[in-house]
Every structure is written in structure tokens, then in C-alpha cells.
Design brief:
single chain, alpha+beta, Neuraminidase, six-stranded mixed sheet, five-stranded mixed sheet, 7 helices, about 25% helix, about 30% strand
Length: about 625
Amino acid sequence: MSNPLKKTVVEFSENLKKFTRISKMNPNDYDYDDEIEEVVDSVVWKKLESLTSYRPACKESHSLASIGPHHIATFGGYESGRRVNSIAILNVANGEWRIPHIKGDPPLPRSLHASTGFNNIVLVHGGDGVLGDSNDKRGGLCPGDSISTAPKNKSNTVSSGDIVSSLDDFYAFNMGNDVDQYKGTWVKLVSSLAPLPRSGHTLTTLKIDDKQLILLFGGYSRETSATSNSIHICFTDDIIQYLHNYENIPKYNSSGIQNNIKPITWRTLKCHGKLPVPRHRHSASVIKQSNVQYLAIYGGINSNNEILNDLCLLDLVTYNWTTIISNPTTQGMGNISPSPMYGHCSFPIPKYVKIDENDTLNNNNNSSSSSSTDSLLLIFGGTNNISQASAGCYSDILCFDPITSEWSKPSTGFVFPSERCNHACSVLYNYTPGNPLPSHISGSSNNNENNNECKLCAVIFGGYNSFNVLNDVWILDLMWRPRGIQQYDHTAEKRLLLQSKSLPMLSTLKSTNVSSNQFFNTGTTTSLLDDPENNKVFHKLRKERAQKDLLLISEKEKINLFEQKEIKYLNEINELKSQIQSLTKNYENEINELKIELEQKTDNIVQLKALNEEIKEILYVSTVKNFSI
């Protein structure tokens, strides 16, 4: 049997020799592309600074929905301990917050509601809202509508001391064809066969069989103290038709009778397999694998007020549920088991990365047979404390691969959001932030319009932790980057130009016919990077240097890994020694006990033999007496 510790030491020595040989070579004489495979396992955060004086107040338990090409809308939530029904629009491209001009009657103030967006329309469903004091009556109820009439003096904030109930009303904020006009109309969507009142549920927009629909999952009802695991769907075409009829059909006909608009019909989706545990305050996202969509539900709180850490995947072709339970004992470099959590968010990220025009890399996966549309699941934030949520918040990003069913922890660099829970998240499908540094390694262009990458990013807003309630905005570029790219830098092009005038690179420019006077002449009107050949040389040299840094980081991590393995094996050896000593001591004790027992049985046998002789003698004497008589 081979010794794993000896094998580890040999591997470590070989890698150390290889590292020493590479580090001593001249970068101009070494082809890094043949030796080094870039480690593409990082994602990059960017903090979005507001360019306007207005910014929404610090809030939590609110919602975020993407509308338009690069706009998001936040609605409701807690502000200063009170539920609100305000809405604000953020232009992610320029960091501008705006309060839209509103028509129509807005929803009641609420928190823990569900929201999603499509076609410049923001949808809001359910949540926890205030009905008023105990003397208030619900009136004018209609199917799927627990609150059909709101107080006329409805304000943007409500007192936290009023009665809180679960809602099931369904609203749309329609911004028309131009989001940049910042105008919208609140429309209450009358529904039939609607889901019961609930909060802490999710709304997800997706396409099934070329039909766009809204999918609702989970939730908690304050009235029944029950959680749900049912799925309800309605089609976006019905919502669009309802809004069209609302705008074009008069409210009353010529006879003064109110015109009825066909309500939106909800349908219950029948699924197979083992259904997920009923839950609320979970996360929901749609991921792809081999051109099959999956609804991914993670975490949340069950009906026993226990926090969950299982991942439930619904195949949106066969409608079959699969539950993956995280095992906290299987932790390691490639498989990290996430903790139970709620109040988090999740979003998909493409599995494969396009670095150059003819070069495709993926995230630590050498398989090339999978489709380029495959995606992984990312989870951010959340808390594991049921009684005091702010005390157990997370700031990590966890990644789930549906092929290997393994969790991992991507690198995020030096700039990232603080730990938080009850924040809101939305995904923009046609926008990415500016260029990360260095741009030529990551494949990102300084001009997003000419960028061939998949434009996809997640936007995080608000939440709270043990320090305070937040109102910051963070953008996560949903594309894998080579390790070492730590943060975004919008001055990359300018800095590259300045560095080109100061770095001694004459030895690499022999074929460019550039004199040293021209190279160091800072007053020249023609930049050295204007020459495509020079630009290519600079990029190649910077790539070589960056790859060398990546190699150094990789080798250091391998050394640390070998040291950890060595410590692990030594600990295992010590444990085995202690187990052997313990077993030896137990065997000695058992042997001594057996010896004592053997001696006792030997004494008993001797006593029995003596007793047997006495009995024989007595019998003999009695027999002789009887014979003589």
C-alpha cells in the first residue's frame, strides 16, 4: 500500500522544481501559453455610486425588478421601521436614481412581497401589509384579491403598530414603451384562481415552449401559519392584454354600467417526484443545463421555523423535482457545503467564458461537449440566525454546478459588498459594467457596444446587517474572470498609455522600427499604442507578466495545499497511534480479566473435585454398612 504522505511530498518537490525553473527564465523566451492554463474562477464586484442627489432611503425586505435595457425598479420594504409603497427607478448605466411620475392607485405599503419585471412592466404580488385596526372590515372582495379597496387617505408610510396580514393582491406598474421618460401607471390586476395570501414567496419570469410566463413558488400565510410548496403560473400575454384593455376600454359604458375586463387566470402547475419542503424567504432562479431549463430553489424557512440548506431543482420539461441535500461533512477545496440560510438571493451565471476570438475557457471544467448555454447557480448573502437575523449574515458567494452537484466558493477580489440579508436582487440581461483590469486578459472591451461577451449582470440593493440598514448598490458581472482580476477600473486605457511611455521595453520592440527618442518623447502627438503591432506587443508582454503572476499565485496555493495535506496526514498518523495505544491497553485489560476469571474457575474446579471425593467416600461408607446389616 502506497504512502499518501510520501506521494504528496514527491508531487510538492516536482512542482517546486518546475516553479523554480519557470521563474528563472526570461519572459521573452518562454511561451506561457504552452505551460500555463489560466485559472478562470473569479467574479468581479463593482460598487455603483449615485450621480444624483436623490437616493432611496436605507431599506430591507423590499423588491427589485429589471425593466428596460439597463433599468431596475425597487418597490416597498421597510424604511426606518415602517413599511412603504414608494417606487424608484435606477439607471444602472449612469447611476441615476429617479422617482417616476405615477398615475393610478399604488398598492398598500408592504414588505416581503414578490416582484419581477418584463417589457417595461413591474409586477408586485402579495407580501405583508397593514389592513388597519381591529374594527376595519375587508370590503369589496373579488376572486384572488384580499384587498380590493384601499383607504382614500392612503400614505406612503404606515405605523408598525397596526395589524399586519398576508396579502394576495396583484399589481402592475406599466411604464409604456420608454422607460427613460420615468412615467408609469399602477394597475390592479384582477385575478381568478389566484394563489392564497402569502409573503416571503418568489416571482420568476421565464419561457417555456416559447411562451413567457410568471411563476410563483412558496410563501407563508400569517392567517393560517402555513407555508407552501405549490407552483402557480400566469402568462405574460394575459397581463399585456389586461393592461391594453384597461387603457382602451372605458370604465363605464353608455348605460352607466361598469365594463368588466377579463381577469387574469392563474394555473397550478402539477409536478412529479418528491416535492420540496414547504418554505418561505427562499431564493429562486432559472439555470440551464444541456438546453434544459431548471427552476432552482434554495434555502428558506420551513413550517417548523427551521432554516433549510437544500437545493431543489425542477426540470421545466418533465416537471420533475430533484432535491439535493447539502452534507456539512463533505467540505474541501472543490466541494463546500453551504450553511442553512434565508433572506439571500441567487442568480445564474454562464458556465463557459470567451476569452479571445478563438479561445474558450470554462470554470474549472475540461468538458467540451456541453452546450455553451449551460449555467451555474450563484448565491449571495443571507443569514443563518432565526431569532436575530443581522447576527448571522454572510458576504460570501457560493457556486453550484448541476453536473457535478458540487458547491464551490469563487474568488471575488478586494472590493465586495458587506455581509447582509433581506436585500433585493435582479438580473440585467443586456448590460455589463465597464472594463475590469486588465481588460485584454479578461476579454472585456472598454466599449461595451463592441464587446462580444454575453452581457449579463446582477444588481444588489439594500438589506441590513448587524451594523445598519443599507442603501448601497452593487453590480456583479456574471462572467468568469481569470484569477487576479480584483476590481473594475475605468481608467485602464489611460493608465496603459502612461505606462507605455515609462516602461523600458526596447528589447521587445526591435521589429517595430521605433527609436528610443520617439519611445520616451512624451510630447509626441502620436501614441505608441496607435500602431497595431506595438499594441500587440504591449498586450503580449502584459499578458506574459500577468500569467507569471497567476503562476506564482497558483504555485503558492499548491504549496499551501501540500502543507495542509502534510498536516492532515500527520494528524491522521497521530490519531492512529493513539487508537493503537488505546486498543493495546484494552487488550491488556481484557487479558488480565480473562486470567483472573480462569484462576477463579480453576479454584472452583478444585473445590468441586474435593467435594466429589467426599461424596464418593460417604457413599462408600453407607454402602458397606448396608451390606453388613
